[in-house]
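Teaching assistant here, posting this on the class forum so everyone can see the example we discussed in section. The complex has two components, and the goal was to see what a joint structure prediction looks like when all of them are supplied at once.
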Amino acid sequence: MRSPSPLRAAFRQALGEAWAGGAGVLLPIGFFAGAAMLVPFTVGSEASQLSSIGTGILWVALALASLVSMERVFQADLEDGVLELWAQEETPLFLVAAAKIIAHWLVSGLPLVLLTPPIGIALQVDAGALVPAMLAYGLGGLAFFLWGGVAGALAASVARGGLLISLLALPLFVPTAIFGALATIEGPGGPSLLFLSATTLFALSIAPFAASAALRLAVD
Amino acid sequence: MIRAFANPHRFMALSRWLAPACLCIGALLMVWSVWQGLWVVPQDDYQGGDIMRAMFVHVPSAWLAMASYMGLAATSLIWFIWRHELADMAAKSIAPLGAAYTAMCLATGSIWGKPTWGTWWLWDDARMMSVLVMFFLFLGYMALRAAMETRQKAARAGAILAMVGAVNVPLIKFSVDIWSSIHQDASVLRLDGPAMPPVYLTPLLIGGLAHMIFFAGLTMMLMRAEVWGRRGDVLIARKLSGS
């Protein structure tokens, strides 16, 4: 029997990991909601104050939650030897890396985006603005996951590399965070949404190659 | 030209006298520029009186912070393409120095900012934010290298990260500029006031040159230490294998 192509295997495996032990998909959601919940306790509960910082809090929570389960994305493949097989396949490794990261974003990033309206409403953000803002959170989250994927690939061979991943990835989040926050304030018509998409496309064009170079290093 | 510099024997012979010479000349010029800055040049009321004398440490360290990240990216690229071990040693040596210079730039900037801007830290200033992000890039680079098991892996991982960071730095700079132009507080005293008179400019430029020469000397010293460390490893390995 012919084995499935590495691209499909990587994609399906990443989707399957969402429900594997340790509740992959629930972990980032819990972290995201928990981090946002802590904010009213620390900055005060006045509605005017919360509504002015609510969209920004969602960005911070999204950036941090995107890194929660990044450690296992490539480390598990390295440990069970799948990565070594993928590196020998004809399919370019950067495509496998991209499939892996995008599948991981689908199961751990997209649910966070769907969660932004209820949490935003709880943070007193104008409800009408939250639905168009989901596009910005989705685009920005994809960029976070791509840079996080590079960091995760670099730290794949490092035991307990979770904190290392955060240190590597967070500086790369800066442009996306800036344009994302501006885009959610401006609304869908403003130029910042275009800049935000540009940072995501930039990440999409560089991160898979950097991640595959890092994965080859982890395999050697 | 790269090939000529890539020979470790030639590097060791050259740096044997060049590194201490750079350190001495750099230190002398640094002392001169700081002496000029602290005691000789007149105080400038526009920049907040005596506190502007911090400039003679602050501005050179900002230049060196930028230059060291470019140096890190360039040596990483050279190592990644040609695998010249000296380029990797240079990258490894530049990282802690660059982190120290970015930290010094931020610290002196805060000390200068407190009396003139009335605050230790100004999130609105694009340059401060860019330097802060660069500081974290240096820290991440060092942490990644330290976490890798072997020297070869540390070199490869570090080079990938340094190059990813380098393509991101212009984007970070651009986005921070846009962000701060929206937030910019009009009451903030602008640093780029009138054109700088030569009485300040000369000690400043000499100070910048001094820090560059000193930085080059320190980098060579660290690279020499790395070469000696690797020679020691080879000797230990030989002894253990019993030949």
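For the discussion questions: Chain B touches chain A through 28 residues (CB under 8 Å). The radius of gyration of chain B is 21 Å. Think about how each of these relates to the inputs above.
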